[in-house]
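Lay summary. Proteins are chains of building blocks that fold into shapes, and those shapes determine what they do. In this project we predict the shape from the chain. Here is one chain we studied, written as its sequence of building blocks.
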Amino acid sequence: MKNGKVIIAPIGCSWIKGRFKKWLKRTGIELGGRRIVPHSSRHSIASLLETKGVSLRYIQGFLGHSDMKTTLGYLHSTQKTIRDVGKKISGVREKFEQQQKEEPQNIINFKVS
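And here is the predicted shape, written in a compact code that computers can read:
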């Protein structure tokens, strides 16, 4: 707040970087000694797109690479890694959905007479 006014700043790299480890922990993704940073998500999305059959040229354009060699350097995830991460994300989603079902809904039932 400055001079009684709320200042809304755009989300920047430092904001994301400061919260990234917490987000990974929430999803149950173990670092296991690996250095995972926000930039890692570019590698993950490139690998996921490739496994879904998306054209390498499209992935290259999506990532903004001028050289295909750079794009190929991003494609290093294995199917097992992708499945493992997917299972963890699904588990977190299912847990969240279960909590939503268990929380009482503030619904008033009216009886019509």
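What the prediction tells us: The radius of gyration is 21 Å.
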